[in-house]
Specification:
16 strands, 1 helix, Leucine-rich repeat, LRR (right-handed beta-alpha superhelix), mainly beta, five-stranded parallel beta sheet, six-stranded parallel beta sheet, about 5% helix, single chain
Length: about 180
């Protein structure tokens, strides 16, 4: 299996049901998985849902995803870009831990919390865009061992606050926060 499309609904015994979550470890260890599309009703991605999917290159997040569980994309070493939808409020601890090819992350306007070591070891993470003004917590070492000269784009009104939060969470002082 190289592609997975988690739709918005499933039909079962004459009824139609919305798919609102992806179970913990649902696709963990699927070594041949390359592309994942997440439906628009999915609100949560469970812990370790895609853990160790080392060939996963592309994830399309549905607009309703609010929570990305702990270690959900850890070990997805082929993932290059993560465009998290505007619904994402929390990114769990170690969510993208060690994803060594991850180069760009875009986070929507509703992000409130980034867990401990969420992007730790993403040594090629060169671009981070945070478009919201609601972020209040960035966990320990969330950006530890990332690209030293990362370019971070944040809302002007939160620049000083976010820079302080990010540096405390392991972002290099050489990084550019604008």
């Amino acid at each position: 299996m190289t592609k997975v499309s988690i739709g918005s609904k499933v039909k079962l015994k004459g009824g139609s049901y919305k798919i609102t979550g992806i179970q913990s470890k649902a696709y963990a260890g699927c070594k041949h998985l390359k592309t994942v599309t997440i439906g628009n009703y999915v609100k949560s991605i469970g812990n370790k849902a895609f853990y160790g999917c080392s060939r996963l290159r592309k994830v399309v997040f549905g607009k309703s995803v609010a929570s990305i569980g702990s270690s959900s994309f850890q070990g997805c070493t082929s993932l290059k870009k993560a465009a998290l939808g505007s619904g994402v409020k929390t990114i769990g601890s170690r969510a993208f831990y060690g994803d060594s090819r991850l180069a760009a992350v875009t986070v929507g306007k509703n992000l409130k919390s980034v867990g401990d070591s969420a992007f730790y070891g993403c040594r090629n993470l060169k671009t981070l865009v945070i478009s919201g003004i609601k972020m209040t917590r960035v966990g320990r070492k969330a950006f530890g061992k990332t690209y030293a000269k990362m370019k971070v784009k944040v809302p002007r009104s939160r620049r000083a606050k976010y820079k302080k939060l990010l540096i405390k969470a392991g972002l290099s002082r050489k990084a550019s926060v604008k």
